[in-house]
Amino acid sequence: MKEVLRLDHGVLTHFPASAGRNKPALILCPGGGYEYCSIREGAPVARAFARDGVEAFVLEYDCTEVPLGAKPLHTLSASVAWVRAHAAQLGIAADRIAVGGFSAGAHLAGLLAATWHDADWFPAGTDLQAHRPNAAVLCYPVVSAGAYAHRGSFVRLAGENAAEQQRFSLETLVSARMPRTFLWHTPDGRDRSGREHAAARGGFAPRKHQPRAAPVPARRARTRARGFGDSRPDERARA
Is residue 222 over pLDDT 80? Predict the structure, then answer.
């Protein structure tokens, strides 16, 4: 792995796949409730994707100076734009760049997937096509600022103001311009996963939007509780 980009509010680290051309790329955002970036949801996962031929990147986004507002979104935006600008050099297909993440990091990935086309979310002069994700993978994401919210994540983003928190509620931002998105949660009943899965499935369902809205598959994984990332012991040790 090697660090490829230091951003104003984050660091992007590269986990290269085998040599080749027209490879897909994935920019991963670890979770951590917008308080920190989880190690086990970063490097171990990126290494696994790289082994399977996906050019992988991990974004450590800055979680200080709350409320964070759109700062993490702008950091991810700059990361996608950088990867696309260097696609030929890295053997990446510029139209196969996905964003993904876990928990709060999945919320961040989903936020860019949902808002990439809306200039109001980004600094003046942002090239919206440059940061457009071609797909999104949301792993047990924070989704809704409603009844089943992971409230701490939205407080970190928007403070205690409920109306401002609602601005970051993903199910209200879905449109036909959102790329194909794979969403999964675990069924563990000890946390909010199952309930938010239902809320997310309802909010992301194409029937709630225009007929051309992005088709979004949803699955429930038969596996462990949230927060495990790619938790094989050998990978954790090398994280």
Answer: no
Q: What is the pTM of this model?
A: 0.85
Which 8-state DSSP code applies to residue 92?
E
Question: Average pLDDT, whole number, for the chain?
Answer: 85
- pLDDT by residue (tens digit) across 66-125? 999 999 999 999 999 999 999 999 999 999 999 999 999 999 999 999 999 999 999 999
Q: How many residues does the chain have?
A: 239
Alpha-carbon distance of 103 to 160, in angstroms, equals: 20
**φ and ψ of 43, to 5 deg:** -55, -45
C-alpha 27/C-alpha 14 separation (Å) is 9
Q: How many CA atoms lie within 13 A of 148 on its CB side?
A: 17
Alpha-carbon span 146 to 221, nearest angstrom? 23
Residues 6+ apart with CB under 8 A from 83: 25, 27, 57, 90, 92, 97
Which of 22-36, 50-64, 98-112, 173-187 has the lowest average pLDDT? 173-187
DSSP codes, 135-201:
EEEEES----SSTT--HHHHHHHHTT-HHHHHTT-GGGT--TTSPEEEEEE---TTSSHHHHHHHHH
The number of beta carbons lying within 10 Å of the beta carbon of residue 36 is 13
88 membership: H or E segment, kind and range: helix 87-90
DSSP code for 134:
S
Yes or no: say if 152 and 68 are a contact pair by the CB < 8 Å rule. Answer: no
What residue has token string 């094989």? 232
**Residue 91 carries which side chain, given as an amino acid letter?**
G
